[in-house]
Each structure stands twice: as structure tokens, then as C-alpha cells.
Amino acid sequence: MKQGHSDKDVDSVAGAVSQKGFTPHVSRGAERTIIGVIGNDRRYELQSFLENLEGVENVIQILKPFKLASRESRTGESSISTGEAVFGGKEVVIIAGPCAVESRSQLEAIAPLVKRAGAKLFRGGAYKPRTSPYSFQGLGEEGLILLSDIRKMTGLPVTTEVLSPETVDLVAEHADLLQIGARNMQNFALLQKVGKCRRPVLLKRGMMNTLEELLMSAEYIMASGNHQVILCERGIRTFEKYSRFTLDISAVPILKSLTHLPVIVDPSHAAGNWEYVSALSRAAVAAGADGLIVEVHHEPQKALSDGAQSLKPERFSALMEELRHIASAIGREMASGT
Amino acid sequence: MKQGHSDKDVDSVAGAVSQKGFTPHVSRGAERTIIGVIGNDRRYELQSFLENLEGVENVIQILKPFKLASRESRTGESSISTGEAVFGGKEVVIIAGPCAVESRSQLEAIAPLVKRAGAKLFRGGAYKPRTSPYSFQGLGEEGLILLSDIRKMTGLPVTTEVLSPETVDLVAEHADLLQIGARNMQNFALLQKVGKCRRPVLLKRGMMNTLEELLMSAEYIMASGNHQVILCERGIRTFEKYSRFTLDISAVPILKSLTHLPVIVDPSHAAGNWEYVSALSRAAVAAGADGLIVEVHHEPQKALSDGAQSLKPERFSALMEELRHIASAIGREMASGT
Amino acid sequence: MKQGHSDKDVDSVAGAVSQKGFTPHVSRGAERTIIGVIGNDRRYELQSFLENLEGVENVIQILKPFKLASRESRTGESSISTGEAVFGGKEVVIIAGPCAVESRSQLEAIAPLVKRAGAKLFRGGAYKPRTSPYSFQGLGEEGLILLSDIRKMTGLPVTTEVLSPETVDLVAEHADLLQIGARNMQNFALLQKVGKCRRPVLLKRGMMNTLEELLMSAEYIMASGNHQVILCERGIRTFEKYSRFTLDISAVPILKSLTHLPVIVDPSHAAGNWEYVSALSRAAVAAGADGLIVEVHHEPQKALSDGAQSLKPERFSALMEELRHIASAIGREMASGT
Amino acid sequence: MKQGHSDKDVDSVAGAVSQKGFTPHVSRGAERTIIGVIGNDRRYELQSFLENLEGVENVIQILKPFKLASRESRTGESSISTGEAVFGGKEVVIIAGPCAVESRSQLEAIAPLVKRAGAKLFRGGAYKPRTSPYSFQGLGEEGLILLSDIRKMTGLPVTTEVLSPETVDLVAEHADLLQIGARNMQNFALLQKVGKCRRPVLLKRGMMNTLEELLMSAEYIMASGNHQVILCERGIRTFEKYSRFTLDISAVPILKSLTHLPVIVDPSHAAGNWEYVSALSRAAVAAGADGLIVEVHHEPQKALSDGAQSLKPERFSALMEELRHIASAIGREMASGT
Hints:
The structure is a homotetramer. Helix content of chain A is about 35%, strand content about 15%. The first copy, chain A, is α/β, with parallel strands linked by helices. In chain A, helix 3 crosses helix 4 (about 140-155) and helix 3 (about 105-115) packs parallel to helix 11. The termini of chain A are far apart. The model of chain A has no long low-confidence stretch (mean pLDDT about 90). At the A-D interface, helix 8, helix 10 and helix 11 of A face helix 8, helix 10 and helix 11 of D.
């Protein structure tokens, strides 16, 4: 309650709380009075309702708003499988591939190399969300078919981004793991649609979103029926200009303490520059990430998107070797290359 | 070029630029060499291509990436009409109404009051993008029908948010102005869909998007065929906690210098608290905004969403009077109430 | 308390609170228990103490940490006078002058023009905080003497920045209003030193600081004995790149609601570009600022610092005319030029 | 140049550049003209000068503004020694101790434990920069003497923060490494003063400063004569609320690529919560940091400052063991405990 509130104000707020079906707990101090209200249902309506009552200074929510995604809803870790990969177990799972699907020859050049280096899934965008309408927008369905062919060729499950509710079914036919990109983290129509799909979902944090909002977006997917959600930190926007985004490495231990869902990291989009990708990858694994999604291109100077942040295959292979040592140093495992 | 590059590196970059069909301009200094490349086409591909060449330190783009939205593409201001309202002219146009459409009686209580106070459009959300899947999600089509009825009753054109490509046609049947919310500013599938629609579009800036990205999203809509785009600043995310978002008031003069499109301001979502809405509204008009979109509710303590930031009708009416004086102080006009 | 805490934990926390001399208020709900502690002394020590007790999930502070600066400590507004200017009254007070003191002829050219346009104080930096050690660092004591001479010549009180505790006395000999710059907002040794000085202080918000921290820094000065503090919003750092800083216009109404101290705005450093200074100045006055501090230079292209954001005198004069209309539109006053 | 500039504008800018003693390089394109100016001296003056010329759209600086701190000024890494510790070599050096010096018994309890765990320096604040004037401000000189005694007792060199130019000499008498805190990163008077001191300096990044500004502040110290500067990333301010600050882990590889100075990380202030400190520490070492500065307290619940983020000695000791494995995984070393 505001300083200088009257006893009548307190009675009136307490009465209103009772009328809504909750029990008010009044604590009076020399300078302030606090009225506790315990209950989790209709919390948003209650917040707005209480803020507008006479004499109320501030309404503070204590309970966390996510449920299905929270640690408290489940004992142990969720583990999510696709192909031979299991996210959320002892193994650190690496997804690798080019930013965009450009051609069959491109995929055929890259996929066997990342598989040999130890990657467990292949990535490649068929629908590309581009800031400019004049940039390359992806091959669309043709790209999806190429990805299917690559799975057949290599045995690696594939992941690709889905941009709109209408294409979810089509993408789910071809992809093993559906990616929701940073710009769509709060595209609620899309979240609900993938929530009705049987494919596991890789949900990227928006560049402008809090960890609580990321968990609420996971909650949308889970509340729609699909509990197979993998969270991905990929950098947030700050004032710093040397990196494209600021990788929020703290997100790894914080998310692991809040949720049972697997947490992976995308070092490539955060860095925006291949020179920093290896250091960020090592940091992510050391911090406890369950996996990484890394951009690899055999000819980055010819890439149609994000060439500057792509690793060449040989560099990726050397990184995988480093990561194996780090995983082992913290008691985890990583598949060896072949 | 990087310090310590060789002449061969310079020749090789210049050669690569020539091969792509551009003319390289080489300037050699004591410490650095700069190679200028002039041309606007394929700039994104070129960036990536050049960044990967040996000896290149940095690729800096000089030209702005938006075209149709830029001042240079059009003489004078775009003016966009709906009903009696004209955005982008001498008049400052006020849109007002509740955050969400809740019921017929609610709309019938609020709409005549905001009209009497001088508002030229009515607002109300039928589809609500909510962070939590457990919050009120809006009345959907029923809400759209109520909005249509209110237009008939008051003569005010209505604006409401459209959340997904599938519902664009339905929303366009009922609404005079289609609103793209902050969370969908980079939902490119949605932008392209409203770009094919004949209704004017109110495009809100994402809470962590740059002004350049806002203009690129306008460019998506315009490049799809719809040039009737109104831009809206509604606050960005920063570290400050007393306001819900930080209203970026500089966006008004900056956008007016970069684009011919009308620019309005949403003071309600930025403030998150009705106590600050009046000051922000006055600031926006004084800074040169072409209009405002303000939340008004007759019973904010019962609002199903954003009650805390809604003005009561009498307060809104007093604000309108203040705004008229400000508009007049800077040589603009505002409709008088009735 | 954490979910799953034991009754013993609750008793133990409540006991610890009692031992510290406070009364615990325990509210038990189905999912959580909340223990209220009322009291304002030793709050920081208590926070740390409680956070470390077994079973405690979170410690939330309800009372605001500033006292002398808070609205609750004083009825009405503080008004702070220097020369003919009164900050915090009905009049909107304008401070104007160059970023840096460069020469006697420069000051003699600018000062009479800003006085004629209606400015009530003259500004100019003698000690310049520069990001680079290789940039012009100001004329130092020589600059202070020039400022004193300008006061004699024009009758305008002068304000200039003080950078370190050692120079406070010297600056206070020459300046009527001591400016603490954004980079020194949390230079606590400096705050304490000006707190022992009799000159009023113009305290700028740090580019990285919250409004609460700004008020805590004012509290440092006030707690040291000097209650004459004027607060200044000058833009915060965000991801947006078209403006040098993002002017947080909401700071004006928020600070006016939290404190009795006068609040002014610096539109020049926020904009970083003279083209946007007029719009931001109008916005600040419309939002309720008690004054402005504006950079004016007669030859901005020759300025030794911040030339790009300086208004030419004729442009400043036109702006003053606009501001007078805005001030009048909101029931305030501004001195007319001569 | 702006679109639509005249040939006369180009000639006039080129002429002005020549007059300043530089050679202009003019590149004309269909839409724009670019005028290159090569040279590093007087760059800030030139920027301002050019921005104000008729027809100029934008002035972009290409060369980095730091010199002594840059990789280009020195072959190999700087290594900075104090006691047995060498920052910038193969070893990862750990600094540990309490946030604040509270008492002799406190230091005597903690110091032997962190030494035994493998820490090479002891930390503890004697002068504490506190947001509130009512918080514990440190023991001052008494604290410095206690630190000296601890060095004698354990043989560990000590580091402590210096807050103002006047106390630099006193602090340098007692401390082996002078710490400049985040809030003083741009306290230029202080930087110049420690620049004249013979002690190595630990320079923390400000919570809203760019990496370039951090390097410019190092440049201040180096340009004043002291080249022994260790840089420290400690988290920046963003919108995320679960962590106290967002640790910018990318700062490690970016700084290592820009400068020859050693780079360490403070995981404790970034996390604000001891539960996340271990993960951030591992990430920092994996990313390539040359060391860490970690808060350790034997009774965190009684700490007078920052108890929530302090590790208990046994936890610190376990962390050191983990870090040794990570250091070894990336080919570095860490002293074993005793």
C-alpha cells in the first residue's frame, strides 16, 4: 500500500481480495502495509485488478508463471531423442551444417564432413527469415526435399526452420526437428501449431526476450500437447558492437536450474564472425549446455547467407576435438568422429 | 584491408570485385588500404563474399538498405486516409480504445466517449498476443464482429491486431486499419500477406528492433504491393525498470528524416502505467508525431489486459485538450471534441 | 520460501528475523510461504543475510531506498536558484553554450547570442572527460577564468563540469552550478566532495544507470549536506544506432513522481546530431522538464568537441521561440529573449 | 556525400581536406560519392569538422582508436607478474577472497583456504563503492593494513579497489595489484593517476561500456606511463533479470584478438548468485581467459556486502579442481592446491 494510505483503503483492498475468493494476509509496519494474496490462478487478471484499487502502490508477483516447463513439474531431466541423438542426457549433441540450403552439391559436400567430425544432426535453412525483402529467401519446398535426400544419404536426422503456421505440416514431413527462430519466439500462432505436431521442437530465444519469456513460449508448445522442446540460447541484443549479438552464457546454468528441458547454444549467430565461434562453443559446453548448433560451410565466401560466421569443415573438425576434451573434463561425453 | 596485407591481397580483392561486375576504387594510406565498391544490388551477397577474402579486415555498407520506404524514393510525405482521418497531413490523428475487446457493453461504453473527446479511430484487440498461454487470448472473430458494429454505431474506423497470415483476410473484412504488433514486426510471412491486402497497415516497432529494421519491415509490406504503411514507436527494452519499456522519442525525428511514411506513437505500452501516459503523449506530439494510439478503458480495474496503463475517459478527454494546445504551438491541428 | 521447504525452515527463518530485532509475518499458502519483514534500517545487510538462509527462495525489497530525495521527505517541490534562474518553479530554465571552452573569442561570440535568445545560464566545459587520451582535454583552470569573465560580461551564471575531488574547490570558485557528468554519476568520492560544497549541483544520469541509482547518487550529495541538486536526463545506451544515446523521455514524469528535486534534460548529447535536437527539446518541455541544457556553437565545424550536435545561434534562437509556445501550452513560462 | 550533392560540394569538401593537410580520395558512383581521407592524427577533430561541411552525409572512422593497447603495437602477449603469479602466460591465474574486508578474523579464516585451493592472489575491498550512502562503505585504511598483514601471513599478493586519485598512493603502499572498478572505468583522473604508479592495474569493464571504450581506458593508463594493465570482463547491463549482469563471454576472444593485454573474468558480480558462479567460471576458462577473480566467503550469510554471490571455501575448492581439468583440456595450466 502507498505511504499515507488509510485504514479504510486496507479494508477495502482486503475485502476485494476476499470477494475474488482469495485470503488476504495483512502485515502492518511503521511506514508501509503489505497485503499478501496466495494463489496462482487468474494471477494476471488479479494483478491488473489490484493495481487499480485506491491506495495500492505496487503489486509484486512471487510465483513463477511457467508450470509444465518448470523443474517443479517433473523429477529429473527431459530427454528428447531423434535418430541416434539424445538431448538432455550425458552426451553433448552437436548439430552442424550451412545456414541456408543452397544446392544439392553444397549439401553433399558439407554433410559427410560434419558427420565424420562427429555431428549428430544436420542443419540447413529452406525458409530463411531475412531482414531485407531483397535478400535470398531460401529454396522453400525444394530445399526441404534436398534435406530429406541428405538424411537418406548420411543417416543424420535434419533440422530446419519453420516460419509460418501454414508450412508446419510440410516441414514436419521432411524434418526430424522443427526449428523456431529467434524472430518467431513469440509468434504464438506458430507455437500453438507446432505444439500440435509430433516432431520435437528446437525453440530459439528471441534476441530481445527474457529467459522467463522463453520458458513461457515453451509453455505454449507444451500446453498445446507437445512436450518435446529443446531450448536454444543464441545471443541477445546489447550496445556492444564487436559481436553481432551478446551470447548470454549465464542462460545455460539459469535455465538448467529453472527447467527440466534440454538447453543448447548457437555460437555462430551470437558471434557473427567465425573467429569467435570456437571460443564460444567451448564456453557453452563448459557451462553445461546439452548441445550446440554450429554453422559450417565448405565455401563460406560463396555462402548466400551468413558466410562470415561459418566455420570451414577442417576448422569445425578441430573444434570438435577440443570440445571432446572439455566434455570429458566436466564428466560428459561426446561422440567421436569417424 | 588488414594492417600488414600484401599488394597481392589488394590485387586479388580488386580482381574479385571486378569479376563480380563492380569497379574497385583503391586508396592506399600509410597504415591501411581502403577499397571502395560502388553499387547497391546484391549488397548482402557481396558483403559475405568480401568478408571472406584474404587480407580483408572489415566490410562497411554505406548506402541505406531500404528503398521504397526511404525519403529518396518519393517527394513529400505519404498521406494515408481511413474514414475522416488522414495520417501524414497537418492533423495529428488520435486512435483510442481499450487494449482488448471484452464485450459489447464495454465497447458501447467507451467508443462514444473517445469519439466525443476527439479520437478519429477506435482501437480494440480481438486476437491478443499474450506471453502466457494461460492469459486471456481475446474474443477472436466474435470480437471482430463487435468492432464492425461499433464502427456502424459511431462512424469511427477501427483498428485491430492481426496475428497470423491465415486470419488476415478475416480481419481485413472487419477492420479499417490492420495492426502488426511489436512481437510480429519480423514475422515476414505475415508482412508479405498484409502486403497483398488493400487495407492500410499500422506497423509497430519491435521492442528490440532498430529503426533500420523497422523500415526494412515496412519495405517488406511495400515490396509486396501495399504502400499504405504507418509506423509506430511503442518503446524498446532497456535496463530501466520503472517504465515497462523505454519510449524512444528520438525515433520520431529520426524516422521523419529517413522516410516519407507517417509516424505515430503508442505511449500506453511504453509507460505501462497510466500516470505517465499524458506526459509521453504530450512529448510525442511536440516531437512531431503524426498521431497517437492510446489505451482508454472505462473500468480499468476490471480490464482483462493492461488495465494498469489505461486512461479513464475523463482523463483521456483532459489529455486531448492539452494535446490540442501543443499541436497548435507547433503549427499543427487536432480535431476538437464534440 | 522455496517450494518444498520444511516447517523447520520457516521457523528457523522467522527466528533469525526476530533475533535481528524485526517482527516476522508468516503467510502460508498451498504452494508457497511468504515471510514479511517490516523495517527500513540495515536493509542491505538483511537482504544478504536472508538470502543465505536455508529454504529461502527470494528476498524482495518493497520500500524505496532513497529518503532525502524522495517525495515523501518533503512537501512540494524543491526550488533551486542561481542568478535570476529558479529551477523547479513555474519557469522552464534554459542553459546554453558550447560543449567546451576553447578561447575567449569563442565565448564572447556565443554568450551574448544565447542570452539574447533567452538562456538563463551559460555552459562550457573547462575539464573535458574524453574517451580517448589523445582528444582535446579542455583548457582547465584557464577555461574557468574565461567562464568567470563571461559571467561578468553578460551577467549570466555559469555551469561547468567538475571531474575529480581535488578540483571541486577551484571549480566552485568560478562556477555557479557544478556539473557532475554522466561518467561520474557513481564517482562516490566526487559526490561526497560536492556534497560538502555550497554550490548547487547539476547531476547527470549515467548512460548505464537506472533512475533509482540516479536518485541514490543525489542521496549521496544530500546526505553529505548539500540539498541543492538538479537531476538531468541525457540519454541511455541501447542497441539503437541512429541516435548517439536513447533519450529516456519517460524519466521526466517518473522522476517528477518520485522526487521533489528539479529535473532537466540534455537533448544534445542524447541526439548526437543537431538535426534532432529541436524535436527532443520540444518533447522534453512538453513532458514537464524544468529546464534544458543545450549545446550551441557559432562555428560548429570548428568545434574541438561535439560539433555535430551543436546548434548554431540562429537555430537555437528559433528553437527558443518554439519552446515558449510549448511552455505556454502546458501552463508554464519561459523568459523571452531580448 | 548526401544523395543529390553538387560537384561543388565535392570540390569544397576535398579542398577542405587538403587544407587540413590530408589527401582526399574521391570515388564517384551512380548514387553516391565517397571521399576517403587517410591518416590517424587529429581524427576526432576531423570527424566533427567534416560532419559539418555542406553535402556530407556521414563520416565513418575505419582505423581503431587505441594504439598502445592494440595487437599491432606489440608482438606477442604482455605478461604481467606479481608475486608468483604471471598473467598472460600459459597459466590460468585465480584471484579469490571476500567482497569486502570486514575484520582480521574474517581474512584469517578465508585466505589460507583459498591459498590451499590454488588461488595465486587474495582479494578484498577496503574502499567499497556502494550505490547507497547508507550501506557499509568499507574499513578504509584499516582494511588496507589488514590486507598487508594477510600478505605477510600467506605470501599471497593482494588486490584491492582504489576509488579516488587521492588514495592511489596509500593503496599502492599496501596492494600488489590496483583494481579500478566498473563504475570508475571512465574516471579519467583516476586512470591518469594509476598510470603514474608502478603497480600493475586490474581494469574492470564498466557495466555499460563497449570493449572499445575499455581499451581506450587502458590506453589512458598506458599513455600515462604504466603498461601493466590487466583487463577484466564482469558483466554488462541488459534487460535480462535472472542474472545480476549479463556476462559477455564473447569479450574474451574479442579482446584477445584486439589486444596483447591479459584478459580475466569476474564471474561473481556477473552472476549475482553463487549457484551460477561455477558454470560461468568454467565457461570463462574454456573461452580462453587468462584468469578469474572470484568472491569467496566462509560465512556468506554474514557478509557485509554481496554475500549472495560468494562461494563457500569448500565449493571454491571443488570449482578449482574442475577448472584444472578444463585448463588442461585446452592446453593451459593451473596451479594445484596444497
